[in-house]
Amino acid sequence: MLIGYHASHEQFSPSRLLDYVQAAERAGFQAIMTSDHLAPWSSRQGNSGNNWAWLGAAMTKTTLPFGSLAIPGGWRYHPVVLAHLIATLSEMFPDRLRWIAMGSGEALNEKTVGRGWPNKKEPNDRLEAGSEIIRALLAGEMVTSDHPHHKTEQAKLWSLPKNPPLLLGAALTKQTATWLGKWADGLVTVRKPTNELKRVVEAFKSSGGAGKPLALQLQVSWAPTVDEARMAAWHEWRNAAVKPDLLAELKTPAEFDAETRDVTPEEMDELIPLVTRGYELLDLIDEGASCGFDEIYIHNVSRNQRRFLDFMTEQVIRKLK
Length: 321
What we know:
Blueprint: E1 2-7, H1 14-27, E2 31-34, H2 51-61, E3 66-70, H3 79-92, E4 97-102, H4 107-110, H5 121-138, E5 143-145, E6 152-155, E7 166-170, H6 174-181, E8 187-190, H7 194-209, E9 214-222, H8 226-236, H9 244-247, H10 253-259, E10 274-275, H11 278-290, E11 295-300, H12 305-320
Helix pairs in contact: 1-2, 1-12, 3-5, 6-7, 11-12
């Protein structure tokens, strides 16, 4: 079981996040996972640095492996540009970029380049086609594609890594997991109630994903007291209350804030585990392991990252070892 730290670009400036991943390595975390956003989920979160620029600095400052989300199905990056970024990082830092989790994206980030936001089927079509282009380019092939959203003519990467990263798929529902099992190298998802999580994993495995890596983003709110943890979750990560079908459709942080304005602090108890003691987090890790996950990336949604990292060292990582 690999225990990683999730670097939340939405909540912290790139420079502050660089300090946190170095501290996470000292605390005993074994890997880092990052998001890829242009905008935060809420105006309260207040940040969203460029993940790809940041990764080069983060890999220089640490020795840990990384996994990153990427959106080949969106508008911000043509798959050729994204493959170029991935290949360059992987060549400079061999075997450090372990996987890329391909997602179809959200209007929050993708509509900003002025091309609107289509229904769910079109982003998925773009995601699969974009992933095929990236996979071929990372294998050293010359690629020409007539895909209507990813037209590509004689593209080739000249600086290639010896071992390209795995191309995992990101899924929130069992329907998406079923589709990803047919072509992705593995699965990344977020924590849900155990029965729901098991259904997502089984859907992925039964459609071709058996034996492939499974990674879980485990969101918690840590604080010294339950009340502090609850208020931190409510202030920072109220977007967890947004239904999956709306996650991709809302267009601005202000729209997310409006959608969640009636969520009460008490309702967060059902959305994000509130953690104050090590055994509580160890139980959540065991829960993820029981669903078949080999990698668990812990995202503490509260602002107090330094004290959380101390807590992890003293009450969780030492006991796992």
